[in-house]
Automatic annotation (TrEMBL):
Homotetramer; dimer of dimers. It comes from Streptomyces cyanogenus. Pathway: Amino-acid biosynthesis; L-lysine biosynthesis via DAP pathway; (S)-tetrahydrodipicolinate from L-aspartate: step 3/4. Belongs to the DapA family. Pfam families: DHDPS (PF00701). Its main location: cytoplasm. It comes from the Bacteria. The keyword Amino-acid biosynthesis applies. GO terms for molecular function: 4-hydroxy-tetrahydrodipicolinate synthase activity. Its EC number is 4.3.3.7. It is found in: Cytoplasm. This is 4-hydroxy-tetrahydrodipicolinate synthase. The active site is at Y141, K169. The record marks T52, Y115 as: Part of a proton relay during catalysis.
């Protein structure tokens, strides 16, 4: 049976956008607007705000809402905005989802409750309660390496029956489980790991939520565009060419937030410091990131 690609409810190339701060550590809304406009102009048709890369654990509820409102003002209807609202507390998550809707988000990203490690029945109940309470479509976020808890494929298939649960950001590193859900549901999958962008897209995903796109949005978008054009060889080449930067940003022992902000600062784009407990990248790391970026973009 030939399967058509599922609809992309939040666009195809989404950037997990960093949250710019001033040198004093305050929310930099002007910088956020300039960065968001840049990312959209360079090929992103969706932005994920207040996610892990956006330092959501250290921003206040008020800052989260202000960021969404400011970015909406900057990009208008040129890109979908998905607001991270996940917490370890269902009640708080519902409150953030409602606030995101009022601020102008098009959807919400809801991560599995962390630390308490709820069983699958509780995981499902958490997502269903958030989806019931919010009028916005929901993207589930499966990242057991951070939360300690999978959204099991069987749970995902069950949740797909909810009319507002429409998408998944997949950082499960369980390609077989992902294929199982793709084959049995209409959920729109988004690769949450930059090394999986093309692989997941090739089996029917809707797109990606990319951290590396903070620095090279056009390069990430071009992988999916080449595949859509039928040039799978070029798509593979573009994915492989991105590997050194993906490794430098995502697999060098530092969180992607830290490396993305270090590189953006070197590129003259809004970034600012990270908030504690994160520490900034050192000069040698920043130099290395810039060298890898320049090697990629020189060709």
């Amino acid at each position: 049976m030939t399967r058509t690609r599922k609809a992309a409810p939040f666009g195809r190339t989404l950037c997990a956008m960093i949250t710019p701060f001033t040198e004093a550590g305050a929310l930099d809304l002007d910088g956020a607007q300039r960065l968001a406009a840049h990312l959209v102009a360079q090929g992103c048709d969706g932005l994920v705000l207040n996610g892990t890369t956006g330092e959501s654990p250290t921003t206040t509820d008020e800052e989260k809402a202000r960021l969404v409102a400011a970015v909406r003002e900057a990009v208008g209807d040129r890109a979908a905005l998905v607001a991270g609202v996940g917490t370890s507390d269902t009640r708080h998550t519902v409150e953030l989802a409602l606030a995101a809707g009022k601020a102008g988000a098009d959807g919400v990203l809801v991560v599995t409750p962390y630390y308490s490690r709820p069983p699958q029945e509780a995981v499902a109940a958490h997502f269903q309660e958030v989806a019931d309470a919010s009028e916005l479509p929901v993207m589930l976020y499966d990242i057991p390496g951070r939360t300690g808890t999978r959204i099991a494929p069987e749970t995902m298939i069950r949740l797909a029956g909810h009319p507002r649960i429409v998408a998944v950001k997949d950082c499960s590193y369980d390609f077989l489980g992902t294929q199982k859900v793709l084959a049995q549901t209409e959920l729109a999958y988004y690769a949450g790991c930059d090394e999986h962008v093309l692989a997941l897209y090739a089996i029917g995903a809707a797109g990606c939520v990319s951290t590396v796109a903070n620095a090279v949005p056009d390069r990430v978008a071009s992988i999916l565009a080449a595949f859509d054009a039928g040039d799978t060889g070029r798509a593979a080449g573009l994915q492989l060419a991105l590997t050194p930067l993906t490794e430098a940003m995502m697999d060098a022992g530092l969180p992607g937030t830290v490396t993305a902000k270090a590189l953006l600062a070197r590129l003259g784009l809004p970034a600012g410091p990270v908030r504690a407990p994160l520490l900034p990248a050192g000069r040698e790391t920043a130099d290395g990131l810039l060298a890898v970026y320049e090697a990629l973009t020189a060709g």
